[in-house]
Amino acid sequence: MQTPSSNLPYVYRCPLVLEELGFIDWDAIPRIELSDCRTGAQPALRTYVQCCRSAHELHVRFYCEEDGVIVSSYTERDDPLYKEDVVEIFIDEGGDGSQYKEIEVSPRNVIFDAAITNDNYPENAQGLKVNTSWDMEGMVTSVIPLQNGDLEYQITIPFSSLDGVPLDGQCWKINFYRIDQDAAGIRRYWAWSPTYHPSFHLATRFGILLFD
């Protein structure tokens, strides 16, 4: 993809960090906040996302405010984590919305990963194909309970499992999501770039990840 105009609302400039330092100073990485996926309003619980890249990997951190109710019972890879509390990343390296990767991590640090084919879904109700036989080799995830009860997710994605190492100035389409269930059993859907629709799979609403 070409470098986007700076006035686009959902562009995240993904900085390069030095691998040899052995750690990421997340305080120095820009953060974005999720909003209600269907309305764009501020959600009941705040969720912040940060991204950076090293020579071989994309690093993503979610900070999730919690209310003491965590719904997470699945234990196996590719279980339907989206039915409970989860954070999600959709990555579209090609940028046309027809094929992308879906990555989910539950509060129990269970992974769902799939290769998605999207033929104009949801307008084409049969247009979504989810291939869970695809696994992101080398991905590393962790879920860290914080002293205040909130959760921190860290997800390390090797570029070798995607389209290779991006060049400076290259762009991918991306979106970040969170699903949370409250004490009354109401499920809430949050996104970086709201889809203004019940589905997360509106590829036209993905934001832009700019490798700065």
Q: What class, by secondary structure content?
A: mainly beta
- The beta-strand count equals 14
Inertia-based shape: globular
Distance between the termini: 13 Å
Main beta sheet: 9 strands, mixed
Overall mean pLDDT: 93
Tell me the radius of gyration: 16 Å
The H/E string reads EEEEEEEEEEEEEE
| Assembly annotation | single chain
Q: Which percent range describes the beta-strand content? A: 35-45%
Q: Low-confidence parts, pLDDT < 50 over ≥5 residues?
A: 1-6
Relative helix content: under 10%
How large is the count of helical segments?
0
List the helices and strands and how they pair.
Layout: E1 11-14, E2 31-33, E3 35-36, E4 47-53, E5 57-64, E6 86-92, E7 99-105, E8 111-118, E9 128-131, E10 140-145, E11 151-158, E12 171-181, E13 187-191, E14 207-211
Could you please describe the fold and organization of this structure?
By secondary structure, this protein is an all-beta fold. It has strands spanning 11-14, 31-33, 35-36, 47-53, 57-64, 86-92, 99-105, 111-118, 128-131, 140-145, 151-158, 171-181, 187-191, 207-211. The two termini are 13 Å apart.
Q: Could you write a compact summary of the structure shown?
A:
With 212 residues, the chain is an all-beta fold. The protein has no helices and 14 strands.
Please name the defining characteristics of this protein.
212 residues; mainly beta; nine-stranded mixed β-sheet; five-stranded antiparallel β-sheet; 14 strands; 0% helix; disordered N terminus
